[in-house]
Amino acid sequence: MSERPIHLQIKELSEVLVNISCKVVGNLFHALRAVKYQDEHSVPKIKLTENEIDRAEIDLEERCIEFIALQHPVAKDLRTIVSILMINDELERIDELSHHIIELMLEISPEMLDSLAFEKMGMRAGEMVTKSIDAFVLHDRDLADQVCVHDEEIDLMHRSVLTKVTALMKNHDAEVDQLAYALSISRYIERMADHATKIAREVNYLVTGKIIRHKNCSGHI
Questions:
Q1: Which of 98, 111, 124, 129 minimizes the C-alpha distance to 179?
Q2: Is 161 helix (H, G, I), strand (E, B) or coil?
Q3: CB within 10 Å: which end of the chain, N or C, has fewer?
Q4: Could you write out the DSSP letters of every residue in 100-124?
């Protein structure tokens, strides 16, 4: 670890985290597009990016741990490094879910994807991740709270998919396997939104020092 001022080192680690988040969101959008158009040719590139993200996340975690060991940060500096570590972990989970979606590419038809509005749901989840990272960069609690509102919207979308799929499964000619895969995709996207919400909670921890464990990011019931 260099002898540069602590605030510059933290700034650099934060920038690495932002760069990782951009790749994670980009991979999510590419995965959604690949599934929508059954584009198998894009899969190797998506997996290559996933491997790059994995290496970057491991490197960032190691740098943060080294920073803590050598610099012994306190107060706001310590909260920032802890937040970077936690957010890095959430981004890793989001990227894993993108991979799970890709694995179902050939198991569900584009027509069913369209009928269940997965593209809109996935785009909103990606926007949540971006907004939560923006909140981290700006130390903006209001922006973090907006992420929680969007999470409620994703929950409603997921429940709508569940209702539609359950109704379709009752038909005697229903493609049960495909419908089950559709539920999996909906659940993966809903979990992405949950991880984005956890990032928003980390922003509140960073700004206030208070740990928020329930869904309302601001801590208000």
A1: 111
A2: helix
A3: C
A4: HHHHTGGGS-HHHHHHTTHHHHHHH
The pLDDT of residue 109: 85
220 three-state secondary structure:
coil
* Residue closest to 187 by CA, chosen among 157, 164, 167, 145: 157
Structure-block tokens of residue 77: 């500096």
Identify the pLDDT of residue 217.
63
Question: To 5 degrees, how large is the angle CA 121–CA 203–CA 19?
Answer: 70
Residue 69 belongs to a domain with what CATH number? 1.20.58.220
- 215: in domain: no
What pLDDT does 105 receive? Answer: 79
Tell me which residues of the chain have a pLDDT lower than 70. 1-3, 212-221
Contacts of 83 (CB under 8 A, 6+ apart): 136, 202, 203, 205, 206
| Count of structural domains, the chain | 1
By CB atoms closer than 10 A (0-12, 13-18, 19+), residue 36 is: middle
pLDDT for 221: 38
Our CA dihedral for 151, 156, 162, 164, rounded to 10 degrees, sits at -140
The domain in which residue 109 lies consists of 6-208
Is residue 219 in a domain? no
